[in-house]
Write a structure and sequence with these properties.
By secondary structure, the protein is an alpha+beta fold. The chain has helices spanning 44-61, 72-80, 97-109, 122-140, 146-153, 192-202, 206-229, 232-249, 259-268, 291-297; strands at residues 6-13, 24-37, 84-87, 157-161, 164-167, 180-185, 272-275, 283-288, 303-308. β4 and β5 (164-167) form a beta hairpin. The two termini are 39 Å apart.
């Protein structure tokens, strides 16, 4: 038995800012996916996933029943019979590995679930986001619920503020376009919780809060608007500003061996790097107006193109 596929996601813009009510734009990334399976625990990964699911079932039993209820009996039976989550989504890479698992569990075991087929009003999206936030907190300590939402719906999601989200369309890709958004593999696994706690610690300083509001969020919001409008000229100007602010104020979230590479992009304009998710490792997002040039500059690294324009 194999359940439906749930895809990874990429938060193009809004990392950290959405904690403080900035805009955000999250898109599905179909290169990676995961599904619930019950075809026997034959690998270390499937055994680890199954024992993780056992702990997860206990957690789900205590979720507020007014928010969501599950067919716990069926879930427990399946997990005890060896169900696991078979996923190609790398963990700790900022592309939503736990989000896809949460989406798969909700899809299969939630009672009265909101489905992709109904008219997705803002209210329904917020309810889903709240449910997913509770469900994913098991993995991260605190979750916005956006990753599972994206994975579950598999459509781009625009975050206007904490309680204002909507499904959105993005400009269609140009397969022959020179410009691209790409992922750069840092080769290091990043952990969300420690990065978020560094951020929360920094938020206690007034200077950092001011920078976040007047620079980081301002540029990030502008990038979201540029991208949705398809104004790529303006997008690159704003992405450069965002990249610079990240290098100056989010250094702990950028692995040290990438500081020079980050700066090189800003100096040459061949590419601009930004955080993908919470940072600390995993993937780094890159934007370039000339993919061939960026590939030359980054020839020692593995690039995965996410979007062409």
């Amino acid at each position: 038995m194999k359940g439906p596929l749930f895809y990874s996601k990429i938060l193009l813009f809004g990392e950290y800012g959405i904690i403080k009510d900035s805009k955000g734009l999250s898109i599905p990334y179909n290169f990676y996916n995961g599904a619930l399976k019950t075809d026997g625990l034959t690998s270390e990964a499937s055994i680890a996933s199954n024992s993780n699911l056992k702990r997860y079932v206990d957690y789900l039993k205590n979720i507020n029943p007014e928010l969501v209820t599950f067919d716990i009996e069926a879930l427990e039976e399946d997990v005890n019979a060896g169900m696991y989550f078979d996923s190609s989504i790398p963990q700790g890479y900022g592309v939503g590995s736990s989000g896809a698992l949460v989406a798969a569990i909700y899809d299969k075991y939630a009672s009265d679930k909101i489905t992709v087929l109904e008219n997705l009003t803002r209210e329904k999206l917020l309810v889903l986001k709240m449910i997913f936030s509770e469900m994913e907190s098991f993995f991260h300590g605190k979750s916005s619920g956006l990753d599972p939402l994206n994975s579950y719906l598999s459509i781009p999601i625009l975050i206007n503020s904490k309680d204002n989200i909507e499904a959105t369309g993005i400009p269609s890709q140009k397969s022959d376009g020179k410009g691209a958004v790409f992922l750069l593999d840092s080769g290091i696994v990043g952990e969300t919780a420690p990065m978020v706690s560094i951020f929360m610690e920094n938020m206690k300083q007034e200077g950092f809060r001011r920078m976040l509001k007047n620079q980081f969020i301002k540029h990030s919001d502008a990038c979201v608007e540029d991208f949705l409008k398809g104004d790529f000229k303006s997008l690159f100007l704003n992405t450069k500003k965002l990249s610079k602010v990240a290098l100056n104020h989010f250094k702990p979230m950028i692995p040290p061996q990438f500081h020079a590479l980050w700066k090189n992009g800003l100096d040459t304009n061949d590419y601009y790097l930004k955080l993908c998710g919470s940072g600390g490792g995993g993937y780094i997002l890159g934007f370039t107006e000339d993919l061939e040039k960026a590939k030359q500059s980054l020839k020692d690294y593995k690039l995965e193109v996410v979007y062409n324009f």
